[in-house]
Amino acid sequence: MVTTRLPLGDYLNDLAGRYGPGYLHTDPIIEVRNFTRPEDREVAAFLAAGLAFGRVDTILTHLRDLWPRLDHAPARTVDAWTAADARRLRGFTHRWVRGRDLARVLDALGRARRRHGSLRALFLDGYDPRAADLSESLARFVAALRGDLRTERSRRPVGEGDLPPGVRTFFADPKNGGACKRLNLFLRWMVRPDDGIDLGLWAPVRPDQLVIPLDTHVSRLSRYLGLSRRRTADWKMAAEVTEGLRALDPQDPVRYDFALSRLGILDACPRRVDPVKCAACSLVPVCTLGGSQDPAGRMRPRRRPQGARAQAAPGDARA
Fold first, then answer.
1. Smallest Cα–Cα separation from 23: which of 56, 55, 49, 48?
2. Is residue 42 within 8 Å of 201, Cβ to Cβ?
3. CA 271 from chain center: how many Å?
4. Is 306 exposed, middle or buried, given 0-12, 13-18 or 19+ CB atoms closer than 10 A?
5. Which of 76, 90, 214, 270 fits as disulfide partner to 238, beta carbons 3.0 to 4.6 Å?
6. Distances (CA, A) of 286 to 112, 114, 210, 226, 247
7. For position 303, what pLDDT does the model report?
8. What is the tally of helices (H) and strands (E) in the chain?
């Protein structure tokens, strides 16, 4: 009997069905969805995405520390932000982001919202609906927000080179070639329709223009699935992976992101062949890592997943 393997898209559709809203507790978006007002969700999402690095449990702990400091009303708080409000953030730390860094971010968000009414309106001011993706629109959005930053000793606008790491992490510019994972995550939350995970707040921005939030997990899995040959998790790799997913779902290519990242976050996908974990993974038939072993755990020749590009051997380093 001849067995026909399904194309990659069928396996990813199955994966997306498995990792749905029931896994919100493993993602910072759960903290954003706890807010009900769209304006609070928008501001909370920008902050949560900006802090989305490190262990998920640590991110959630620090977000739960942040909301009371903002009176559980982030939009109203940033709209009225003054220099004196920086005291709200004394003692706040998330990795390299300190309270004084976050105070400058909140000040910039408040200035932008007072001028435009919302972050959505600011984004739409620079949005190009004809573009293939959101790279140029995102660059204009970031430049506008950076224009509302001020130095600690003067009121002049600052360039990216003037920003300390704890501020710069919120304002990555795709023009510099980085993957801009956190901002692409924020855009995914804002743009994709409300499916119990993403929020669907930024119509008329089109989901097919989104670029995948390329974190350490998704970049590694993308190599395993033949969606990219690249080793470096930068904008070029993010665009290449998105293009591969667009071939599977032209209207909504990044809808697979939440499910793919669960495999890494939940440690369901190893960095080296693990007979037990690989056997339990539904992507094994289209994976060049887990698919390289037979049922007894012995290595066998790798094969190219259907519907994806060929790839180099996966790397083990975290992004």
1. 56
2. yes
3. 21
4. middle
5. 214
6. 45, 49, 24, 9, 16
7. 44
8. 14, 2
Name residue 234's beta-bridge partners: 178
Q: In whole angstroms, what is the distance from residue 48 CA to residue 31 CA? A: 8
Query: According to the model, what pLDDT value does residue 185 have?
Result: 98
* CA triple 193-195-201, angle to 5 deg: 35
| CA dist., res. 160 & res. 155, Å (int) | 15
How far is it, in rounded angstroms, from Cα 101 to Cα 165? 9
Collapse the DSSP code of 94 into the 3-class scheme (helix H, G, I; strand E, B; otherwise coil) and give the result. strand
pTM of the model as a whole: 0.88
What tokens were used for 319?
A: 């992004």
Per the CB < 8 A criterion, the answer to whether 101 and 166 are in contact is yes
Question: What would the pLDDT profile of 283-295 be if each residue is shown by its tens digit?
Answer: 988 988 765 544 4
As a whole number of angstroms, the distance between CA 186 and CA 210 comes to 10
Least Cα distance to 150 among 135, 140, 162 occurs for 162
